[in-house]
Design a protein that fits this description.
Strand 2, helix 5 and strand 3 form a beta-alpha-beta unit. The N and C termini lie far apart (54 Å). By secondary structure, the chain is of the alpha/beta class. The chain is built from 14 helices and 12 strands. Its cofactor is pyridoxal 5'-phosphate. Keywords: Amino-acid biosynthesis, Methionine biosynthesis, Pyridoxal phosphate, Transferase. It comes from Pedobacter vanadiisoli. Homotetramer.
Length: 388
Amino acid sequence: MKSENFETIAIRTQTERSLHKEHSSPIYLTSSYKFEDAEEMRALFANEKEGNVYSRYSNPNTSEFIDKMCLLEGAEDGFATATGMAAIFTTFGAFLKNGDHLVSSRSVFGSTHQLLTNVFSNWGVTFDYADLDKPQDWEALIKPNTKMIFVETPSNPGIDIIDLEFLGDLAKKHNLLLVVDNCFATPYLQQPIKYGAHISIHSATKYIDGQGRVLGGIILGTKELIAEVVGFARHSGPALSPFNAWILSKSLETLAIRMDRHCENALKVAEYLEKHPKIKLVKYPFLPSHPQYEIAKKQMKQGGGIVTIVVHGGIDAARKFMDGLKMFSISANLADTRSIATHPATSTHSKLTEEQRNEVGIEQGSIRLSIGLEHINDILADIEQALD
């Protein structure tokens, strides 16, 4: 039975059953595959026939994960990687060459910033940062050698948002590749391809897994673009392991119901903290006070599970709050069933200069709260006692 409903697609899409008629997909822990004869081996390596050649190229488990994500995101094809950063590196590596220019949102994950400033800059790729809250400035940064627009929305950790339809139109006008890191929203809350993005990237380590167990990433787009990604990835080797692909595919079965609870809890936390006297600022997409609230409501189903706050009192107050938490985990990860608190200035974004952090709204008092699936009363109680 075919369905257009997210939950049904996520649960019922799977590899063809074997002769054992298993109900749940098995794990294909094999590095290589047997060919029927020499001709089949030749045809597979010549891409004249579809099939598995080597698990660095494809595997039934990674194929199932990719098939599900394509259906959920509205993409034609995809490639699964070992980590989210491998997905970003592979995308940059597949499409950017010496002499190319990139326009990127200023508020990007710390490791993405490091790739742009310390890796691809050494390979002759230049870039300019633009602010998500200043869309009027983006077009002026486009040069004759600009090849790509890259953006996180919502951003990490500032929770800034940009109009994807605007970016889609801008990319089309200048014949640029629009790449969107959709990690915070997940395909359940947002589908960038629907608004004109050519490629959507996820760190599957986050909400796709959702339980802090495995690493993974995925690149989604048209068949033509993913063919270029595969051409680069087959030889650079960022492949996702079959076991992790199996975990991630199974995790997609509960993504919708998990995200509903993450979003419900996060909104209640954001509303509570917005009224707290010790909190200087609260950023959450579905708070009416968010600068891009109307855009968020247009392109996102719900606000996501991340709330970023700034406490009065700077780093000392931030440390006091985090050290006072009893149930929240202090971790650099996010999107877990368990609520997590992170101090970006001294962890995930510590390699940025203070000036660079200030430009994207990361203050010494900034704390990223990944709101988990615990009972909301316990989440609020832990925050309340830590602020006392």
